[in-house]
Amino acid sequence: MATFRLVVVAGRAYVEKYHPAYQTRDVFTLWGILQLLARYPWRVPDLDLMFFCGDIPVVRAAAYPDRSEAPPLFMYCTEDPALDIVFPDWTFWGWPEVNIRPWAPFLEEVARESWRTPWLDRKPYAFWKGNANVCGLRRDLMRCNKGSDSGKDWNARLFRQDWGYANRNGFKDSNLAKQCTYRYKIYVQGRGWSVSEKYILACGSPMLRVDTPFRDFFSRGFVAGRHYWPIDAARMCPSIKLAVDWGNAHPAQAQRMGEEGSSFLRKELSMDYVYDYMLHLLTHYARLLRYRPTVPENATELCLESMACTASGCAREFMMESMEKYVADYEPCALPGPFTADELAELAQRDVEMRSKMKKLEEQEEET
Predict the structure, then answer these.
(1) 200: left (phi over 0), alpha (psi -120 to 50) or beta
(2) Which residues are CB-contacts of 95 (< 8 A; sequence separation ≥ 6)?
(3) Which of 3, 93, 113, 238 has the highest local Cβ count within 10 Å?
C-alpha cells in the first residue's frame, strides 16, 4: 500500500516511489521532511520507512493478533481498529491544487480576517462548504440545509464546493481564511479523515464536529465541550440546530468555546511543535530498527534546490513560503509521556458526560 519509501542516511534523504499519490500529497510531504532536515541538521537519525498518502488507515489491528508482526506504515490519520503511524499531513506546507497556503502564513491571515468580523457580528448559523459528493455522510449533511426536503430550518447554511469551477475562477470565493463570517462551523469527514478540521477550528467560531472514528496526530488533544461541540452523526440536523440555538442563547459560553478551539491551534499546533513532533516520532521509530539503513538501489536523493526549481506556479510559491530559513539553535520541546490508563479513562468519561448532557438537551428541545 505504500506510496513511497523514505530513507535517511547521514542526514540526507532518499526516496523510492511505488505508486502515484493523489495530486501533490507525496511531493509536499517529502518537502516537509526536507524542511525538518534543514531545521534540525544531523538530528534526524538514519531511518527507513514506508509512507501511504491516502485518507483511510489500511493496517488493520484484527489482521495482526501479534502486534509486533504488523508492518509499520506512516500516514496522515488512524483510528482505534488500525495500527498506522500518524504523521503531519502535506497541507502544513501547502496544497497548491486548491490554493491553500502553508500553515504558518495561513494562521496569520485567518487571525487578521477573524478580527474583521467579531463573533457577535457573525451570521448566527452553522456554516459548511465543501465537496458533498465524496461520501454518504456529507450528502446526509446537505439535508440539513435551509430549504431542503424537510422544509425545516436546522440553523445550517451549507454550500457545495466545485473545485474545478473554483480553479477556473481563480479561487476568488474559496479563500478559507475569509470563511470566518458565521458564528459556528461544521466539521464532517470525507471518504475518511479530512484535512479541513484544522482550518475550520482556526476561525474562532465553535466547531460543530460530526462524530468520526478518524483522528490525526493532534486531535486526541481535543476536549468535547471545551474545544468543540459534538454532533451525533445519526441525528445531524437536530444536533446542529440544538448547538446553534444553545450557542445563540449563551453567547459568552459559545464564544469562549470558539476561542478555546482556535487558541489550541495557535499554541499546540504552531509549526515549531509540528517539526518537534516529527523529530520525536522519527527518532523513536529509528530506535526500533534492527538493521542499519542503506540507500535503496532505485532511490533518488531529495534536495531542496531540485524540488523547488522544478516546481512552478502555486507549488513553487508555497515551497518558497514554507522553506525553513534558519537552523534551530535550541533543543526541541520535551516529549510528554504517553497517557496513563487513568488519564485515558478520565478523558473517555469526560466525553461520555458531555455527550449525555447534549442528549438531554436534545430531548428537552423535542419535548418543547
Answers:
(1) alpha
(2) 23, 24, 28, 195, 318
(3) 93
Hey, what's the cell of 253?
Answer: 459560553
Q: Summarize the chain as % helix, strand, coil (round to 5).
A: 45, 15, 40
Q: Using an 8 Å Cβ cutoff, are 260 and 226 in contact?
A: yes
- Give, in degrees to the nearest 5, the angle at Cα 180 between 213 and 271: 65
Predicted confidence (pLDDT) per residue in 253-286, tens digit: 999 999 999 999 999 999 999 999 999 999 999 9
Local structure of 300: helix, strand or coil: strand
Burial classification of residue 324, based on how many CB atoms lie within 10 Å of its CB (0-12 exposed, 13-18 middle, 19 or more buried): middle
* Average per-residue pLDDT for the chain: 92
Question: How many Å apart are CA 319 and CA 328, to the nearest integer?
Answer: 19
Q: φ and ψ at 15, to 5 degrees?
A: -130, 140
C-alpha cell at 40: 534540525
Domains, the chain, ranges and CATH?
4-93+271-336 (no CATH), 99-269+342-367 (3.40.50)
CB 243 within 8 A of CB 126: yes
